[in-house]
Automatic annotation (TrEMBL), chain A:
Organism: Desulfofundulus australicus DSM 11792
InterPro entries xrefs: DUF112_TM (IPR002823)
Keyword list, A-Z: Membrane, Transmembrane, Transmembrane helix
Name by which UniProt lists this protein: Putative tricarboxylic transport membrane protein
Domain called DUF112: residue spans: 18-435
TrEMBL record, chain B:
Keywords, alphabetical: Receptor
One Pfam family linked to the record: TctC
Gene3D superfamilies in alphabetical order: Bordetella uptake gene, domain 1 (3.40.190.150), Periplasmic binding protein-like II (3.40.190.10)
Entry superkingdom: Bacteria
Lineage start: Bacteria, Bacillati, Bacillota, Clostridia, Eubacteriales
Protein name according to UniProt: Tripartite-type tricarboxylate transporter, receptor component TctC
Sequence similarity: Belongs to the UPF0065 (bug) family.
InterPro entries registered for this protein in UniProt: BUG, Bug_dom1
Amino acid sequence: MWEQIGAGLINALQPFNLFLAIAGLTGGIIIGALPGLTATMGVALMVPLTFAMDPASGLIMLGAIYSGAIYGGSNSAILINTPGTPSAVATTFDGWPMCRAGKADEALNTSLIASAFGGLVGTLFLLFLAAPLARLALKFGAPEFFWLCIFGLSTIAAMSTGNVFKGLVSGALGLLVSTIGLDPIEGVPRFTFGYYPLVQGIEVIPAMIGLFSFSQVINLVGSRQKYIADYKPNPGAFMRVVRKLWKDCKMILTRSSIIGTIVGILPGAGGEIASIIAYNESKRWDKNPSRYGTGIVEGLASSESANNATIGGSLIPMLCLGIPGSAVAAVMMGALLVHGITPGFKIFTDSGNLAYTFITSLLLVNVLMVLVGSILIKGTARVLNVPTSYIGVAVVALSIIGSYAIRNSMLDVMIMIFFGLVGYFGSRIGLDTGAMALGIILGPIAEENLAKSLALAGADGSVFKVFFTSPISLILIILTVLSVITSWLLSRRRGGDVKEAVESGRA
Amino acid sequence: MTGKRKLFTLLLAGIMVFLVAISAGCGQKQSGSSSSELNYPTKPVNMIIAFTAGGSSDVQARLMQKYWDKLVDQPWVFQYKPGAGGAIGFAEIARAKPDGYTIGGVNVPHIVLQPLGQNAQYSIDDFEYICQVVNDPQVLAVRKDSKFKSVKEVLDYAKENPGKLKVGIVGTFTGHHLMLLELQDKTGIKVTQVVYKGAADQNAALLGGEIDVMIGNVNDVMRSLEQMRILAVASEERSKFLPDVPTFKEEGIDIVSDIRRGFVVPKGTDPRVVQFLRDTFKKIAEDPEYLKDMEKAGQPAEYMSGEEFEKYVREQNEKARELLTKFGLLKS
């Protein structure tokens, strides 16, 4: 194995492959940073190019784009409070406050280092534990997925400490929105109000672009601020961040990266879920959870390391079982198949050279990312020196193009604008856009798996057995209960103001 | 500072112009010519794919494009209109201007089932059929270590334990769904149907033991032959990808069920254009190089002329209508 890793590394270090890795990273980071253009889109656009390359070089380029795009999403999340990709939603929670406090350089460097760290951890799991983890992923069935979604939804309680009622209402609205379209089990249209195009449902990405980007533009335009935030270049930021992460965040980075890898392995759950779960876990275990959301390095490091760790995770079932763990992994599998390479446990022996070249190149990509990223940061941070009016125009244009490009559908543009207004006006009456987004993302997965579990329970003759007996389900149930209880205890400790908030929520 | 700011604004503006230019490139200007001489195509032809970029339908069309470009001067411009299992894109083809500059990929039985079961906004009468290019038969698959060694054992178990056998399918009102209905109808068994969103989750569920049996397609199960056993294939003859697997007919069950891909233009397109397209596609579909490419990509190629394809679609429509009526799933 070590020999193959060595040979793979030598292959990955060939000048042409290195060039592809750097070009892929640069392109990926830019695509990721532009709100509306996602990792899936970037990788899918480049697949035809790989047909003309040898398979290893093609995969290296796609892997670099994937890694770059997932990291790149944090740039716009931090600088303009607009997640560049859906997996950067949790990055806005602490990234944006840091930027507003004039610490943009620290925030950008934190996300860069955390992303590279998460990417490395995910890839190491892919390198050394791919086969056993792929087998473990198969144990994750419909009931387990259902409980994972419930656990994810329970984090609403943790997220909106102090105003749980509004958080719950927002989450429920998100769930309701997610039921529009074709029923996943019966295949009949729901809540289309006689307007046929709605059968395609509310696509998550346009809704998120609306909630987070478009509403933010309205805010900016209405704020009369000439610039988004004060920005002074801060030369020593990189080393300061490295020292801070080493001193305080070892645990957070490791835990978040492992969460990211595991969520990445599961088909259908990706960076957008991993980053939110990791963020909330960091918050839960912190001595002083209330500092999360005020602009701290720890929060940023959690979400950014988790979403990049999903990359290695999502490739595990793709390479071992031919079952992609994310939409991007699915596109990459298509590229593999065109070259006549069949995924499977045997890929590590039959096409070992290719597999190890690809995986070691991913390690290399994450190291190179720190270099490429630090150069790009110098440019992206300058966004803060651009007057808000220009930023507003640019974000509106990108939001429209990005929403349209998901399915080439004008309906998605309307959905994006609609959710932009919901986000803008909603936040004035206490709507929690994070909770709502969580509802929209997790709703369809929760519903589909609930229905599947019920069908399975019908065949087994016992609802209890299906939902409550598997060890993974039990762990998730316990985590859910803990998640609700800890946030309840926390809010009790702070007593009075919570009660008040709930009262005003009802009013 | 201001200089830099200007530079950046300029750069930003440049990027935007570039992006707008890209997106504008998709919408072609229409300039209808009504001369009696067939002068076609004089501009790029839109190719509507009702699924995502990089999916099976896209890969197949891209393979064809390579050969189209050798025969015709004007390229295809791909437009992806995914959503609602293809219903959005198919409707888009049906509604397009019938000037020959919109071709679309369709799947059967999708275009039959969606109007019948889901009030889709098109019908099979909205198209002129160019040809069929792929026939991907359905298969019945189990885990490698499953106790079921043949279709008969599966059916026997299902008969003795009504509702106990868990069968995974992808989507409702799909080829898989139709085949499961047909199987239950023809053999009198009753099973628990578990609906998955895509082949990936379904394959994982089979390997993880959540379901006992699944209905898949040759194109998908080819990747997992290490971990799966294919019990039977629902085609007239054995698949060349799976030469050792018997057909359902050999096993004594009269079921032929598959997913087919073909190309259509909107109803009302100039018959001479339709003829031109039928001839061109035939040339491509019979090119040995193209067939080699298809095999490499795991796409089971099967050509059928436009007339035959239309006849086939209408037969499937009757068959599906009957089955859906029997199971109370008919909408219109």
